[in-house]
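HOLO CASE FILE
Compound: coenzyme A
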Amino acid sequence: MSGIKILATGSCKPALTITNDDLKKCIDTNDEWIHSRTGISTRRMTNGEPTWYIGAAAAKQALERAKLSPEKIDMIICTTITGDYFTPSCAAVIGREIGAVGCPAFDISAACSGFVYALDIAQKYLASGAMKNVLVVSAERLSTITNFTDRSSCILFGDGAAAAVVTSSDKFYSSYMGCDGTGMKYLYAKADHRDHPFTDSPVYYDDQTSPDAPVGVLVQDGKEVYKFATKALPHALMSALEGTGRTVDDIDIIVPHQANIRIIETAAKNLGLPMEKFFVNIEHSGNTSSASIPIALDEAMISGAVHEGQTLGLCGFGAGLTQAAIIMDT
Ligand code: COA
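Model generated. Tokens follow.
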């Protein structure tokens, strides 16, 4: 069993704080409605800083804390659905900024499961012995694809980045990754295509995504996503535990994707676990997609809630529809 050790984490929370009351500028809403249905009071937003910039800031902090120079990084995986360029990858730009050039660098798009997917890819390379240190960076500016006229979705999202430097260990590790594209219609954002000199307007998957849906912004069926998420969180964790001889009660602490406090509460109940086992920071971060788990993990490691000698669960779920979990001894 080849596990991983998180040498250090870092994060970057953009300076702009947007309260629930601030959202009244765009939509008819109120603090009580948003807080009671989501657990969110404030979220952070960038004020023009690019995604690579906040990702690089988080990566620099993680490297400093790991006391590792950028040349020691063997691979950079960036997770984002809100990169600044179609190409190059956000990972390539971050590598340039932090001085980690030469090693492979690439992005993955797995929405809110992105960090867990990336960590699991890192584990495979570390386990093979091909690499010693992998940098995973999750950086998102959901404010760039949020529809601020849709009051049932724009209340949820925020911006942020976090990074983890990982190496191999001989401790317990088990994982699960999954995706069901038949649920793509419940949460998507159409890519913004330009006029083409030779063909008609772009064709999307039009029996899955509405032809009337605005381009470039998130479209969500909140009720369907809610139903999926409350099942996906327990399912991914249980699937990662399958065949390991361990049970859910062996997990000391779970850092779940911070989508909505009610999703986490319902999942906790379905798993038969107390809420105390879940690390939650959604009140002041909102849903930052793939950055949400590592931002929470960074807070949990700094506060001591996650420390050596524990069994840690990480669990993501989101657009795709994707879901993923890792159970590991720290
Ligand atoms: N402020 C005030 N009222 C609002 C509102 C807002 N921001 N958004 C919606 N409403 C109103 C609706 O118009 C509706 O009013 P009506 O009954 O008069 O028609 C009422 O509140 C209920 O709306 P509904 O959309 O049914 O709310 P809901 O209880 O399903 O909650 C979500 C909406 C988005 C909070 C909930 O569906 C959810 O959390 N889904 C999961 C989203 C998620 O986590 N996505 C990311 C996953 S990675």
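CASE NOTES: The longest helix spans residues 222-241. The first strand starts at residue 3 and ends at 12.
CLOSED: yes
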